Amino acid sequence: MSTLSTDKTILLVEDNPKDVELTLRAFRKSNISNRVVVARDGVEALDYLFARGAHADRPASELPQLVLLDLKLPKLDGLEVLRAVRQDERTKLVPVVILTSSLEEQDLMRGYALGANSYVRKPIDFVQFAEAVKQLGLYWLVTNQAPPPGGKA
Amino acid sequence: MEGADRDARVVAPAPVGMPSADGNQRGATPDFRALFESAPDAYLVLSPELIIVAASDAYTRATMTQREAIVGRSLFDVFPENPHPGATAHRNIRASLERVRKHRLADVMPIQKHDLQRSAADGGGFEERFWLPVNSPVSGPSGALSYIIHRVEDVTDRRRIEDDFRLMLESLPCALVMVDRNGIMTLVDQETEHLFGYSRQELLGQPLELLLPEPLRAKHAAHVMTFFGRPDRRKMGAGQPLFGRRKDGSLIRLEIDLNPIETSEGTRSLASIVDISERQRAHEARARLAAIVESSDDAIVGLSLDGIVTDWNEGACAMFGYCSQEMIGASLALLVLEDREDEHPGLLQRLRNGERIDHFETVRRCKDGHAIDVSISISPIRDAAGVLIGASKIAHDITQLKRAQTALQRAKDDTDAVNRELESFSYSVAHDLRTPLRSIDGFSQALLEDCADKLDDEGRKYLGYVRESAQHMAHLIDDILALSRVSRATLSDETVDLSALARSVIARLSRAQPERKVSVSIQDGLSVHGDPRLLEIALGNLLDNAWKFTRNRSDARIELGATLQDGATTYFVRDNGAGFDMAYASKLFGVFQRLHGAHEFEGTGVGLATVQRVVHRQGGRVWAQAVVGAGATFYFTLRETTANT
């Protein structure tokens, strides 16, 4: 098991700045101090992942260790982002956790069908929310072995 | 041959008045013996002691005997009785001869059955013969009886023909009654006995009125007079319904043909009687059916195999505007719209194949040109031999129905659209309303944590309230979404084990609150039909409530079972918890209705509304009974499946 390494990036795809702040606060309180990149809509998320647009100067081979993906997003919604990520050879293995308010069955089903690694509903109670974010971070950044960068399936 | 044997055998004296047979007096005295023996009829001459004295050739031929073998022997020795039981020839002939001896008068006997013994060479046994015997005395000069002439006529053939005729008559399907001029029955057949329930003995010699119902009896005598006054073949009753009366008093519908018959005893009327009750009933049934067909609002049309109209009822007139005179003989293609012309030959072909066509929906054109929606059923018509001869077509005007269906479909489309909107609204509610709540809760918590030193106790308490309210609202939203999901869910129909479902709910509750001590009793084998997920939601809510409202009791008890109420299986969840005041029972199942303050028991007031919606969607009913402080019982029924009814 690897130790909590701060060089691993988390991509947080979330349009609501308050939710962004709460999520960052939850990471802080769980002592997760990795770099968190925030994308505020679906297009920005894909730009980051594919190193294009505003993120064109970023080395495309460096992929985030974890993508936390909200579903309801401006421009391109979360499920469309997920589809694009899974269809692209470069990104298809990136761990993606859907982190959303929706408990609609069809969102769950489509999320998993498109290859989400986890589906977590954001609790209203901040104490519970912080706990959920902490567990997510520990699991995906520490417990889980990510696919090797540039590795071929 | 006869001439040669004759003299040798005759030992008895020659009959009186007959000269000696041994004279060659041709031309002088006639040869009476020769004349007698050649007589065309069968004669036997007997002595008063019944010894055979002479026999004519015709007699020996008829009895298959030889004269020399019988003359000199007793009549009864020569012709023994057939040992068949019931044979009476000997007795009757002896009695007749006795009468002749006594009264010296000829005795005409009725037909006698006196069978002839066959020689062993011919196979033995007896041959059936019927005879018509006449015995006549011959007196000597002193007046004493000297001979008896026994004349017989072989009527066997005639008797057989009569038998055949009788059998023929008896086997006719009609009852035959012969009536004389006085209206007395002189002959009836077996069918008459069957038909009227009388025996032959009860009928013969009785007036025909016996077989007629009371009102007809008086008039009948006059009818008999009329008939014999001008006897000819006719039908009785002159077209009026004719009834007969059976022995048991019941009436039967009859058809009677009268035929005058000339018999040796004068004119008779032979009535052939047929029971037409059955035919009449069939006729009436046909008439009734015809009336039904005529009075139907549906168009009922008879068709030949090539689509020509053969029958056209009032309903068809009203529906299509053509009267039957216009349509009978015309092609039904007249009603087919131009754009459906290809449809008609196909239907005709199916009709010719003997197919049934059920509820074929199409459009037909009326006489005034306007089109109507019709549902058509066509059935083949076959003759008695099963050969396809046409079809009956029933057309039902479904224009109104179609219109209603269209309206219904539009309404459904509208509803579906509203439902889709509702669905997307629910989705927004789930996502968008929760998001600010999370901020309210999250930043209140952040304040409590980060700025604790700047807040006094009151400030911390208020922030606590803010968080509680946000969380409560989140519950409300979740419950409302669950309720809306229950309403929108597509129902499946599966066998659901309610008992197992209840055990899993209780297990979940126990895990959440392991400190609770609750005595749970779940009846085994409660198997129902319904949607498993909806039933889980309903049962879950009821058990959640029971669990929640018993938390102040140390002897908490929760029970799930089933009883039979008004013939319907009724399930119940019973607890001994807080209960409620029945005065508010009507509010129990309303959305956001609560019978307990939030300080007593938390809740959103949506759970029982959800239960009710589930139960209604499953075709059942839900109600409750409770006593404050003593517990509540919630009852529900579910749609009974066909297997249970």
How many β-strands of chain B, per DSSP? 26
Order of SSEs of chain A? EHEHEHEHEH
Can you tell me the CATH superfamily of chain A? Response regulator
Q: What's the pLDDT, averaged over the residues of chain A? A: 87
The largest interface is: A-B, 19 and 21 residues
The CATH architecture category of the largest domain in chain B equals: 2-Layer Sandwich
Tally of DSSP helical segments of chain B: 19
Task: Describe the secondary-structure layout.
The complex is a heterodimer of chains A (153) and B (645).
Chain A: E1 10-13, H1 17-29, E2 36-39, H2 42-49, E3 66-69, H3 78-87, E4 96-100, H4 105-113, E5 118-121, H5 126-143
Parallel strand pairs in A: 1-2, 1-3, 3-4, 4-5
Helix pairs in contact in A: 1-5, 2-3
Chain B: H1 2-9, H2 32-38, E1 42-46, E2 52-55, H3 57-63, H4 67-70, H5 75-78, H6 89-103, E3 107-108, E4 112-113, E5 116-117, E6 126-127, E7 130-139, E8 145-154, H7 156-171, E9 175-179, E10 185-188, H8 190-196, H9 200-203, H10 214-229, E11 234-235, E12 242-245, E13 251-263, E14 266-275, H11 277-295, E15 299-303, E16 309-312, H12 314-320, H13 324-327, H14 343-352, E17 357-365, E18 371-382, E19 388-397, H15 399-450, H16 457-488, E20 494-497, H17 498-512, E21 518-522, E22 527-530, H18 532-549, E23 556-565, E24 568-575, H19 607-617, E25 622-627, E26 631-636
Parallel strand pairs in B: 21-23
Antiparallel strand pairs in B: 1-2, 1-8, 3-7, 4-7, 5-6, 7-8, 9-10, 9-14, 11-13, 12-13, 13-14, 15-16, 15-19, 17-18, 18-19, 20-22, 23-24, 24-26, 25-26
Helix pairs in contact in B: 15-16, 16-19, 17-18, 18-19
